[in-house]
Amino acid sequence: MAPPPPDEPHRPEDRTYDSGPWWAGLGPIGAMVLILGGVVWAVWSFLRLPGDAQGQALGYYRAGRVIAIGLVIAGTALLGRMRARASGAAEPSEEEREAGDGASVSP
Question: What keywords are annotated for this sequence in UniProt (predicted)?
Answer without folding.
Answer: Membrane, Transmembrane, Transmembrane helix
